[in-house]
Amino acid sequence: MSRTRTTRLRLTAAGAAVLATATVGALTGPAAAAPSAVTAAVTAATAAQDVAPFPKGATLLDGGRTGFLARSGTAAAPYFWTSYDGTVTPLPGARYLGAAGTDTIVEDKGDGTYVLRDMGSDAEPVVVSTPGTLLGVVDATLVVQDAQGIHLVSGAGGEVVRRTVTGLPSGSLRVRSTAPGALTVSSSQTSADFLSLVHVSTASVVKTVEARNHVLGFESVAGSKTHMTWYDYTPADDGGSFHLLDVRTGEVEVLDAFGSFESTALSEAWLAGGPSGLTLRSLADGREVTVLDRVRGVRPGADGAFLVDGTLDRVEGVYRVTVGADGKPVAELVASSGRLPDLAVTTEEVPSVVDFTTPESWGRFAWDFNHRVEPTLTLTHKATGRQTVLRSGYHSPPPTYRFAWAGYGGWRDMADYSGEYTWTMTAKETDNVGPAVERTGTLTVKRSEVARDHDENGFPDLLVRDGAGQLSAYETKQLREIGTADPTPTVLHTGWNTYSLVASPSDRTIVGRDRDGVLWMHKGTGQKLLPRTKVGGGWQVYNKITGGSDLNNDGRGDLLATDTAGVLWFYASTGDTTRPFKPRVRVGGGWQIYNLLTAPGNIAGATGGDLLARDRDGVLWLYLGKGDGTFTARRKVGGGWQQFTHLAPFGDGSRDGSDDGRMDLYAIGPGGSRFYPTTGSVDRPYGTPTSLGPRSEAAFKTVF
What we know:
The structure is a single chain. With 704 residues, the chain is mainly β. The protein is built from three helices and 58 strands. The strands form 14 sheets. The chain has a five-stranded mixed sheet. A hairpin with a 4-residue loop joins strand 42 and strand 43. Mean pLDDT is 86; it is low at 1-48 and 653-658.
């Protein structure tokens, strides 16, 4: 078995004009000279006024040399025959079937009696009585089924001839397609699904194939006397492929570009179908051309033609598609549903403010259109240019296309920022016909103030300075991805290698001590830092600084520093950018035994913010804040912390989603990093850690 993968060729506008035209006139007349693209569109519109009507929502069933059978689905007599001369004949009765490629139709009387009529002649109807259920018609032969199987029944000359189809696998039988001289039948068993091609002349199976996935079975089934097509899925249902079988040679081509298509047909020379517009593929040499813009149904016609319910240049109706001796296909409009209106928006619901300050809050957008579309919504943050792209599927009831913006970004992405946004909604018809529709506007995103939220996106951040001096903000979910992915943080500032010590004493405030001992303060706004302001000189006496805990219960995070003599000093924040700290207050001496300090906030329920200190032996100690800038006696957290170079408190990052309001801890080291969730217990402040990807290297030179 050969497996050939092909690529479907779409024509340019000029090529389409040459190969696909809409004309009016005798079906057997010579093809007119190919018009330009503009002429083709005008011709199609004119033809729509001159041919027979085809009701909106009607279904093409079958047709042949002089007309086609269809069903409207709404009238009291839903079936009708449309001649190519424009005559429409209503058909009384409950059920009709047509024979593909012929003018034969069959009326099912419902009592085992069937009336066959040749709509292209004045011949008397043929009445056939036979037991079983009518499944289809091939040429002038009925396909019926009873408990013994599928039978082919003909009544020519007044004699009923009944032949049983041989070679079908056992199971639940179903006729999947009919064509001149052939039909396909699927056989479903408990653990297998088969598809068989039957020749009417011999009433026997000439080829049977088995579905790879017996639960999903076959789609896009079509057959002729020489070929059979189907689409099936892999056993694991992780994709499928379209197959074209030449029963004469046994060769199978796999045509990935065709995809799964509800309506597929075969003639002696061409395969018709495709995932959007009508594509004809030569069975002789494999060349492909797209003839129509849209297809709802396609059936084999007479003399190698196809009858197609579709659209060309926005004219909707039934087309007869033929291929001339020169190999060029021609689409002829034989019944019209009228011209499709251009794509337009019919409903629009867009908020001016998206409020993410309440739990489970979403930004909700909705549009409706006069056609099925594939819309996208792009939200662009004005200050940074960062974009969020949303897509919507089809919903019911209307509004049909709805977008829900959660605002928390993807698993590896930062959440969406607060502030002003522009939005652009772009919609294109599902088969990419016609120009897109675009709507634009603006909106504002509101977010609650969150501790350590340095980029105003509603989530706490961990600050990281890399070896190049770039200062960035990471979210919890991003840190968990580092090592397996490369999440993009928010870059707040550059040039931070000028500072030898850095800390974040309060929300949106970062301080850094330069090499001359001057302390500078940076205030944050939006997703950046404002120009620095000078706090003061003389800070070269300190070898460690940390901040973030509210030590005196005034609602502001404060700053702690240890000098070279081992004395710990407390700097209370004032909230005034011109004088950010009150005069220092001595906490106590002996702090030279510690080589790492971090202020995690109130993690154990005492009256003030707490302090963590690691000694030279790698033991971590907890100092509970009293709320007056002092601490209780230290409590041992545990040993082994010498493996880390940075300890950084971080807003609640519980994997279970429990927002307990306490700062968790991130420990970053050269051999790996860990996330420690808080417990609220004084005796055991941190729970079981989780390993993380970041390591203290050039990309994570300083973490706070």
